[in-house]
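Dear H.,

Thanks for agreeing to be a second pair of eyes. The structure we're designing against is below in token form, covering all 397 positions.
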């Protein structure tokens, strides 16, 4: 038998050679793609890129933020929907206030609407720092029939970062919805805003609708086609990777339910239909709880939140309820207390008036709530609630 010359290659050497060929082949593909498109389209290693889904935009309401894994998702579309007057603008405004709290003078917020203009006064009442104009202050002084002191004027002119409102002129009345959508997309492309709110979905007047009289009807599916095109452009913008840093813009859509509202409601039964369904990273459904009555007069309400969709590490189907008082707003301390009690971060001693909060014994409910009014202690308890609830590895800036 004729002997084979040379050394036999071992298994490890064969595998190594195979790996080298594979790497060489892949590098060739990467180079070819880049050359073909002049660098406009390229293949990158996953380790060179990053995502921002751990960056969250909280509402400040602990029960809600726990259910949506720390807050609304950055670098994604989030949807609030529910019947009229349920509290969608309330949650959006609270989210704006939290952006200002977390970013300070670097806060950048844009508000756009297909329907009603942004209610600045309501947002101010909820803690959003939007400065009053000199004309508004003068009008207030006339209503009060007395001048305001300088300290009050300074508080009214308080500004944190900037809040912008997208508007349009009569020149684009033939296609107002498309113009607003284009403006929002350009703002997303700019990466300058941490939060963009697009309100009143379903109130948009498209070019197709504008070309018809009120008596005439636009084509069936006009709204769905509009949002289908909008989100195709949106994802094209968000998937641009010319920079290794992801686009951290949070797009928050507010949609009104126009039909029945109940446990068997489908996505197509609220404005936007399937296009908004597929675009959502987080979809939060709001519904009515009980009314708060004193002497048969309503002074507030319970708002129930149900998570209908929750990507990027969240869970679907979870619910919570928080209270909104018309005069005092949301009681954040009470909401934190109730949430902490549910998961035993706060406990009550058996047959005793004492509550135990992070090892501290506090006598009585009211004193416990008062202790949570201290921002530092409040944040410690909130952080522990998040940890016990499994909301970890998130950031707010």
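And this is the sequence the design step returned. I haven't edited it by hand at all.
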């Amino acid at each position: 038998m004729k002997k084979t010359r040379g050394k036999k290659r071992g298994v490890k050497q064969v595998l190594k050679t195979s790996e080298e060929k594979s790497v060489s082949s892949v590098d060739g593909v990467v180079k070819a793609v880049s050359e073909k498109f002049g660098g406009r389209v390229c293949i990158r290693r996953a380790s060179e890129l990053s995502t921002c889904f751990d960056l969250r935009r909280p509402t400040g309401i602990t029960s809600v933020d726990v259910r949506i894994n720390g807050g609304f998702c950055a670098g994604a579309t989030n949807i609030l929907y529910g019947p009229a007057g349920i509290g969608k603008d309330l949650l959006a405004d609270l989210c704006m206030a939290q952006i200002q709290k977390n970013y300070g003078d670097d806060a950048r917020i844009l508000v756009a609407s297909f329907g009603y203009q942004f209610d600045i006064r309501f947002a101010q009442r909820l803690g959003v720092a939007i400065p009053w104009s000199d004309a508004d202050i003068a009008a207030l002084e006339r209503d009060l029939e007395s001048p305001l002191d300088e300290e009050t004027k300074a508080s009214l002119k308080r500004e944190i970062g900037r809040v912008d409102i997208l508007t349009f002129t009569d020149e684009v009345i033939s296609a107002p919805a498309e113009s607003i959508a284009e403006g929002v997309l350009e703002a997303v492309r700019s990466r300058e805003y941490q939060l963009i709110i697009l309100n009143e979905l379903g109130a948009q007047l498209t070019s197709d609708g504008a070309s018809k009289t009120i008596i005439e009807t636009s084509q069936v599916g006009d709204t769905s086609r509009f949002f289908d095109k909008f989100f195709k452009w949106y994802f094209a913008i968000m998937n641009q990777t010319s920079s290794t840093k992801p686009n951290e813009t949070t797009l928050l859509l507010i949609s009104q339910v126009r039909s029945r509202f109940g446990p068997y409601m489908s996505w197509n039964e609220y404005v936007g239909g399937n296009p908004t369904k597929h675009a959502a990273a987080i979809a939060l459904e709001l519904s009515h709880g009980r009314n708060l009555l004193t002497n048969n007069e309503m002074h507030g309400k319970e708002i129930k939140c149900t998570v209908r969709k929750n990507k990027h590490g969240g869970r679907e189907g979870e619910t919570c309820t928080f209270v909104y008082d018309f005069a005092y707003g949301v009681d954040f301390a009470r909401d934190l207390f109730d949430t902490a009690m549910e998961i035993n971060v706060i406990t009550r001693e058996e047959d005793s008036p004492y509550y135990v909060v992070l090892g501290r014994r506090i006598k009585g409910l009211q004193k416990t709530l008062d202790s949570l009014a201290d921002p530092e202690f409040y944040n410690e308890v909130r952080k522990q609630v998040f940890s016990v609830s499994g909301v970890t590895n998130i950031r707010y800036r």
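Two observations from my side: Residues 260-265 have pLDDT under 50 and may be disordered. Residues 11-36 form the longest helix (26 residues).

Warmly,
E.
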